[in-house]
Design a protein that fits this description.
This protein is mainly alpha-helical and 360 residues long. The protein is built from 13 helices and four strands.
């Protein structure tokens, strides 16, 4: 029996269940999501090389204009403290027009890559300072863990795959490379630029293919890490719903508060219809609120006796009508107008009450 108990405890503590929505939400708040850094790198590189492919002429004009100004104008300017400041601003402006679009494309691509993986997420949990992050023992374990070995093989695979792709591009254009020495400087630069962009596009596409596989692995690893045991699910449910004893006390307090509010309305009632011992229904007619009389309080046994006692203390008339009291208790809720089939009976009672109090 003891061995069986230990086995049951082991299986109860084994993380075999999928994470609950609450566990996923808590992990997301901590910044723990399925994410592949390779996807970001691949998308950013692909976006940059695509931009270079379509905006190469624009960038070429900027860089040629910078060199032209440097050799035609800047070289003749006397070097002084004020002139250096002006030259620095002019060159900086040209560099902003050259590098700014590239950086903007990279930023947009990075944001888009993250959004595609896990949507919008802002969390400061990952950047908070924790002493355990600089623990040498845990750091040593991370370095020589299974995950580290997997990352090493992934890096070797990426380098090999991307290297093969770029080498293939170079091999296919080996003729253009061999005759570079026979071309003019401008033509050689155009060939090198075309070759660079082509290698970048093919390498980015290859890296993007590997990053998709890496994302699937990261998603699998993330799902595995956030798995829960049966005991975890029970504890979460208990924490979410609250301790049964506390819940019962809360409900009791809510009932008591509702009872006090109901009893506070009894003095404002026009009449209390009784069974006479088991049921009591307090009614009020206010044409400004509802077109028909409505229930302000109702109860059975002890509550009914309390309603009658408060009604007597506040000179609210009590009328005995056994079938009407029972029917109203079953079919009308507090705050609701009485059902239409009871209009005539209640109207006669209210008329009697008003005549008795000389209200009409």
């Amino acid at each position: 029996m003891k061995l069986l108990s230990l086995n049951l405890q082991y299986f109860a503590g084994e993380k075999t269940e999928k994470a609950t929505p609450k566990k996923r939400q808590d992990s997301r708040k901590k910044g723990q999501v399925a994410k592949s850094q390779d996807v970001n790198t691949a998308v950013v590189l692909l976006a940059i090389f695509l931009f270079l492919l379509f905006a190469g002429g624009y960038l070429n004009d900027i860089i040629l204009n910078l060199f032209r100004h440097s050799f035609d104008e800047f070289i003749h300017i006397q070097v002084t403290e004020e002139n250096v400041y002006v030259l620095f601003l002019d060159i900086l402006k040209e560099l902003v027009f050259f590098l700014g679009p590239i950086m903007l494309v990279a930023m947009i691509a990075g944001v888009a890559a993250n959004y595609m993986q896990f949507g919008f997420l802002f969390s400061t949990e990952a950047i908070q300072f924790k002493l355990e992050k600089i623990d040498p023992i845990k750091g040593f374990k991370r370095i020589f863990s299974i995950r580290a070995i997997v990352e090493l093989f992934k890096s070797i695979l990426k380098i090999s795959f991307v290297g093969i792709v770029t080498f293939t591009v170079l091999w296919l254009r080996i003729d253009d490379i061999l005759i570079l020495s026979q071309k003019s400087v401008g033509a050689a630069m155009v060939t090198l630029a075309s070759l660079t962009v082509q290698m970048g596009l093919f390498a980015s596409a290859a890296l993007l293919f590997l990053s998709v596989l890496d994302y699937l692995y990261q998603k699998y690893d993330f799902e595995k890490n956030i798995r829960m045991s049966k005991q975890d699910i029970k504890d979460e449910y208990k924490n979410s719903e609250g301790d049964p004893l506390i819940k019962s006390k809360i409900k009791q307090r809510q009932r008591e508060m509702a009872m006090r509010r109901m009893m506070q309305e009894v003095p404002n009632a026009d009449v209390v219809i009784t069974n006479p011992t088991h049921y009591a229904i307090a009614l009020k007619y206010d044409e400004k609120k509802l077109d028909a009389p409505f229930v302000v309080a109702k109860g059975v046994d002890y509550v009914a006796q309390k309603i009658k006692y408060i009604a007597k203390e506040n000179e609210v008339m009590t009328v005995e009508n056994r079938p009407l009291a029972r029917a109203l208790y079953d079919q009308a809720e507090i705050g609701d107008a009485i059902p239409e089939e009871f209009f005539k009976a209640v109207a006669e009672i209210l008329a009697y009450v008003y005549r008795t109090k000389n209200k009409i």
